[in-house]
Amino acid sequence: MVAAYAEIINKSDHSKRRERFFYTGMSVAFVIIVFAGFSRTFYLRRYFDSRPLIPLLVLHGSVFTSWLALFFTQTALVAAKRTRIHRKLGIAGLVLAALMIVIGSVTGIVRAKVFDVPPGTTSPLVFLTIPLGDMLVFAILVGAAFHFRRRVDTHKRLMLLATITILPAAVSRLPFVFIERATTPLMSFGLSDLFIVPLLIYDLVTRGRPHRATVLGASLLILSHPLRLVIGNTHAWLAFATWLTQWS
After folding, report:
1. For 104-152, what is each residue's pLDDT tens digit?
2. What would the mean pLDDT of 145-168 be, rounded to a whole number?
3. Which of 6, 14, 142, 225 could form a disulfide with 189 if both were Cys (CB 3.0 to 4.6 A apart)?
């Protein structure tokens, strides 16, 4: 009986180590992708472009970087079994998420007047569905994660998916020729959505089936991508976007 109990403990420890390794690894991958994508236009901009960024873009980059830093810190705290500090920082994360939604939306609206749209979108007003859609899906996933904060398995998956939501902008700027020459909104979405695959594999390995939060959250994220472009080309959206950008 003692041996059976010890075996259960060992399996539990192994499962926790695997969990810590997975989420820490994903957070590190997010940091690398964002830094690589925005290195030339934000983090190392002075080496590539002497023109200063407008204050709004500096604020936008700083706030979104803070989210990645907090996400990494939170996964590291869990890995170190510092769950009390993790929970306290969760309130700061909720405030930061709200700030991101506001700043991300305002930046998208302001930039719609001056932004050169990538291939695959016909106008800045159509492209506006992308940043605003990102903020809407991000808000839904973070809100759901906060609601289910006491259900750890659901909470951590929703937070991971929420962070994947904001990756397309960085992915589209990765310094690789095949991305720079062929990047369209759907390609950026598709490449960033590849981060969902490790989560699905993790679920299959640890649970034998995808977690409900993974399925629902990933479905929302993936289905929103083509839907945004469809909505962006409707007369109703163009009229609304025209009105919206007049206030910026």
Report:
1. 999 999 988 766 655 555 678 888 999 999 999 999 999 999 999 999 9
2. 95
3. 225
What per-residue string of b and e applies to 198-214 under the rule 16 or more CB within 10 Å gives b? ebeebbeeeeeebbebb
- Residue from 148, 157, 227 nearest 185 by CA: 227
Using CA atoms, how far apart are residues 38 and 45, in angstroms rounded to an integer? 9
- Measured between alpha carbons, how far is 71 from 34 in angstroms, rounded to an integer? 13
Q: How far is CA 140 from the centre of its chain?
A: 12
What is the predicted pLDDT for the residue at 12?
57
* Tokens of residue 68, six digits: 């990645």
Amino acid at the residue 43: Y
From residue 32, give the alpha-carbon distance in Å to each of 27, 35, 38, 61, 238: 9, 5, 10, 15, 36
Q: Is 121 left (phi over 0), alpha (psi -120 to 50) or beta?
A: beta
- Find out whether 34 and 68 touch, Cβ atoms under 8 Å: yes
Q: Which domain holds residue 81?
A: 2-245
> What DSSP designation does 167 have?
-
> For the chain, what is the domain count?
1
